[in-house]
Design brief:
- It is a single chain.
- With 285 residues, the protein is α+β, with helices and mostly antiparallel strands.
- Helices cover 38% and strands 18% of the residues.
- It is built from twelve helices and nine strands.
- It has a three-stranded mixed β-sheet with strand order 7-8-9.
- The longest helix is centred in the last third of the chain and has 15 residues.
């Protein structure tokens, strides 16, 4: 019998924090150096808020405002963590079931949770990646192979598909990954994070605009942003190995192909999560 994993089996015990008085600059530098997307805000050892990369991006002035370096630095330096943090904060305890924490993250659409003790003092951080890495390390022989859990009704694009159309397709399907095919053969892979990064790079100098994907991706094709067709799995690969590959590549989905290179479907982080929770979606059929 397998022992259920707890939050303390997966969390980061030493969480980096901000104080309510920390500047926006502190948040940016910390996130950049540690490559994290969220920082708990702590006062007197208790969590009073959380700052995510989303709040930071919205608070930063755009370069299109034409600010001098002095004015830009002054503007950023005046913003404090207390001004942009989310509160109250969703939390879990070290002894919470890991699957319960995963369910909370899914239901509330958050990528991480501060871990607190019974007195409300911070004990660490738990992210979606932490949960999946812990589950991937555990023995889960009943997970089976990729073909039992993958999403078969997959939408594809060709190398010549406009990048803006591909971005819209990803939003509609919510699959995180979009295979680029020529006929039935896989030619490349478009990941949601790559399209978002391309829009962010263009938006940094222009500032916010309506229909940003269409505006910033204009003139680009799927072939311009796709990754080589190497990040895939075959149908017989164990689901646990597919999860490990996604974590290693830092992507949220992989195409599933036959030994001859024909596309069969995709396996996404959502498919993995449903597998961990013992759920099966109709989309697999």
């Amino acid at each position: 019998m397998t022992t259920a994993l707890l939050v303390k089996d997966a969390m980061h015990a030493r969480a980096v924090t901000l104080s309510p008085h920390s500047s926006l600059t502190d948040a940016v530098v910390t996130m950049q150096e540690l490559r994290v997307k969220r920082l708990p805000v702590v006062q007197d050892s208790r969590v009073v808020g959380i700052v995510t990369d989303g709040e930071v991006r919205r608070a930063l002035p755009t370069l299109s405002e034409g600010l001098t370096p002095w004015a830009f630095t002054d503007r950023v330096g005046r913003v404090r963590a207390r001004d942009i943090m989310r509160h109250p904060v969703l939390t879990v305890t070290p002894d919470s079931a890991l699957t319960a924490a995963l369910r909370l993250m899914l239901d509330r659409r958050v990528g991480g949770l501060p871990v607190v003790d019974d007195d409300g003092e911070l004990r660490g951080m738990l992210t979606l990646t932490d949960v999946l890495r812990a589950e991937g390390r555990a023995a889960r022989l009943h997970w089976g192979a990729v073909d039992q859990h993958m999403t078969k009704g997959v939408v594809t694009v060709t190398p010549g598909t406009p990048a803006s159309e591909a971005a819209a397709t990803l939003k509609v399907t919510r699959l995180h990954v979009l295979p680029v095919v020529q006929g039935t053969q896989l030619r490349g892979v478009l990941h949601e994070k790559d399209l978002t990064a391309a829009v962010d790079r263009a938006g940094a100098t222009h500032g916010p605009t309506v229909l940003a994907d269409q505006f910033f991706l204009s003139g680009l094709m799927a072939a311009d942003l796709m990754r080589p067709p190497t990040g895939y799995v075959t149908e017989s690969v164990p689901m646990r190995d597919a999860l490990t590959r996604m974590l290693d590549l830092d992507v949220h989905g992989l195409p599933v192909i036959t030994e001859d290179g024909d596309l069969l479907g995709v396996v996404t982080i959502s498919d993995v999560i449903r597998t961990v929770l013992g759920e099966h979606a109709d989309a697999h059929a």
